[in-house]
Design brief:
Strands 2, 3, 4, 5, 8 and 9 form a 6-stranded antiparallel beta sheet that branches. It is built from 18 helices and 11 strands. Helix content is 66%, strand content 11%. The longest helix has 53 residues, at 250-302. The radius of gyration is 61 Å and the shape is flat. With 613 residues, the protein is α+β, with helices and mostly antiparallel strands.
Length: 613
């Protein structure tokens, strides 16, 4: 009956403008209880794209399945259109800017995505309006520019949400707006608002009469009169609300609502009174609990844990009456902490420090579960116990060091024990520390005499080791590696007995170097001997020149090794070889001369014979 008892007149125009195909689309459905009006602007560049039509058909079908003016319903219509465009078959994805207006013939609610526009005019003024979801609109708002500037802004069509964008799809859904008789609703696309400003459209509808067709014609005439050079698709819709639906049962429903409200109010007052009384009692108990708990904290701060325990028990009793599980748990933690501290204090008073220390450590663990309220008190007690125990710890450490003969370190420990005992007024510990000091001073005096004798013995041993090391260096420099090895080995043995690691390492290095040099010398001597043997063999074979070369190589090696005797003997052998070679040459010359004379004599006899003949 709503549609029959209301009057909504809808007129629209939709033209391609200067484009070959009109990608705009408008359609609406008016049911008995609800009406839905949808305008869409296709954003695809292809002239044959049907994104606007597909979007509107999907939205209207979703509306007809579940007609409603609810916010969630309107959002579901828009999401259905978004899914339809994303799932549409085609090479290119479909996109559209859309505005949906839903009414129950009494109120309206609208939702949109993109830059199609809706305006509600009342008495010639704009009552409701949409805002473009574009970068251009955001930039214009930042600069506080008018909406008319947006029609020429270069970013006016740079949208951040639209139908078909998928993951980033975030449509705007308005609140409900009540309609009155005489309201005018308009819907339009880019072709209108890019060429006509708000003031011009407002003038049309401020002077509008009862004919919506006339208003549509006036808008189109105004648009075409401007003769825009790049006029695109344009669609304009106007809905004249001549009569809003009036509910005949409204007064009866109001009386019923008032009666129910009074009954509910009485019930609420009774419930509130009961709640107030219960809350008052609870507040009183809560105050008692908090007061006892505050007293507990104050007594704990003062170190009076006996009184703190009494107050904490009262606080726990109040918490149990309130059935406050959280407070019961917290106060129980405080009570357990107080009991642990009282037990440790009792042992502390009886001077059972080690047992008290263990109980204070247990109390410290419980303090962590009770907001650390007793940490400072327990730490002071533990510090005092540590001081008492430290005095005897220092004395025991001093005794241990004294047994090992480390009297200097023992003295330091006894002095620490004495100073600590003096600082905490621990007379017994101070007396024990002083007795220990007297004892080690006597032992230190005895040790001093023994150390003096030991130092003298050590100095003599070090001097002997140093002398052996020097003798080894001298033999090494003279090339007597075997002798140097003996000296270095003796020096190493002495330094090791003296536990002189530095000089032991030095003697060891020199010994290793000496061994290496001795090995090298032995190798070279073997090579020289080889040369001597080869020279002797060559000499027997009569190859005196070859033998001379081998003797010369052997002599050079002996010179290098500073074996002067062997070098001298080799040189003598070479001299003898020179003499033998000289004798051999003289003998050969004499033989050659004799042969020559013989040849001369034989030649003379032949000549004489010839002459006789």
């Amino acid at each position: 009956m709503r549609k029959q008892n209301s009057t909504f007149r809808t007129v629209f125009l939709s033209e391609a403008g200067g484009e070959p195909v009109n990608n705009d689309y408008f359609a609406y459905v008016e049911l008995d209880k609800y009406a839905c009006y949808v305008i869409a602007d296709g954003l695809n560049e292809q002239p044959d794209a049907e994104s606007a039509r597909l979007a509107i058909e999907t939205i209207l079908l979703a509306f007809q399945d579940h007609p409603s003016i609810g916010k969630k319903a309107l959002k579901s219509y828009l999401r259905a259109g978004d899914r339809a465009l994303r799932k549409a078959d085609g090479k290119n994805s479909l996109k559209a800017s859309v505005t949906v207006l839903v009414s129950d013939y009494v109120k309206i609610r609208y939702g949109y995505a993109g830059n199609t526009r809706m305006r509600l005019y009342r008495d010639g003024n704009i009552k409701e309006r949409t805002e473009d979801m574009s970068l251009g609109n955001d930039m214009a708002k930042e600069k506080r520019q008018t909406s008319d500037i947006l029609s020429r802004h270069e970013e006016r069509n740079n949208l951040y949400t639209w139908l078909g964008c998928g993951k980033g799809f975030r449509p705007y859904i308005s609140k409900k707006t009540a309609l009155v008789n005489g309201d005018i609703l308009t819907l339009y696309t880019r072709g209108i608002w890019e060429n006509l400003d708000e003031g011009e459209l407002k003038d049309v509808f401020s002077e509008a009469k009862d004919d919506p067709q006339e208003s549509i014609d006036n808008v189109e005439d105004m648009l075409l009169s401007k003769q825009p050079a790049d006029l695109g698709n344009y669609t304009f819709v106007t809905i004249f609300v001549d009569k809003v639906f009036t509910d005949p049962n409204r007064k009866r429903r109001i009386r019923k609502i008032i009666l129910v409200s009074v009954i509910v109010l009485v019930i609420i007052v009774v419930i509130a009174l009961v709640i107030w009384l219960l809350r008052r009692q609870r507040t009183r108990r809560t105050d008692e609990m908090e007061r006892s708990l505050a007293n507990t904290m104050e007594y704990m701060k003062d170190g009076n844990y006996v009184r703190a325990g009494e107050e904490c028990e009262e606080a726990l009793e109040s918490a149990e009456k309130l059935r406050d599980k959280e407070m019961i748990e917290d106060i129980s933690s405080y009570l357990m902490l107080i009991e642990a501290v009282n037990k440790a204090d009792s042992l502390y008073g009886e001077q059972e420090y080690e047992s008290a220390q263990e109980d204070y450590m247990t109390a410290m663990e419980r303090s962590r579960s009770a907001d650390h309220v007793a940490d400072e008190y327990i730490e002071k007690k533990l510090s005092a116990i540590n001081d008492y125990l430290s005095v005897y710890d220092y004395i025991r450490m001093g005794d241990s060091l004294s047994v090992k003969g480390d009297y200097k370190a023992a003295e330091e420990k006894y002095l620490l024990a004495k100073n600590l005992a003096t600082g905490i007024c621990f007379d017994g510990g101070r007396k024990d520390a002083m007795d220990s000091l007297d004892r080690i001073y006597e032992e230190m005096a005895k040790e001093t005499e023994e150390e003096e004798a030991g130092r003298k013995e050590l100095a003599a041993a070090q001097a002997g080791a140093a002398e052996l090391l020097a003798e080894g260096d001298k033999a090494f420099s003279d090339g007597d590696y075997e002798g140097a090895k003996v000296y270095y080995a003796m020096a190493l043995d002495k330094y090791q007995k003296l536990e002189d690691d530095g000089n032991s390492a030095l003697a060891g290095i020199r010994l290793q170097s000496c061994v290496k040099k001795a090995e090298e010398k032995a190798g070279k001597e073997a090579m020289a001997e080889q040369y001597i043997e080869e020279a002797a063999a060559l000499e027997e074979e009569g190859d005196l020149a070859g033998a001379m070369k081998k003797y010369l190589l052997a002599k050079d090696i002996y010179k290098e090794l500073k074996e002067e005797d062997k070098a001298s003997r080799t040189e003598n052998r070479m001299d003898m070889l020179d003499v033998d070679a000289e004798e051999e040459r003289e003998k050969r010359q004499q033989e050659e001369q004799q042969q020559y004379r013989q040849q001369q004599e034989q030649g003379g006899e032949s000549v004489s014979g010839n002459m006789l003949e």
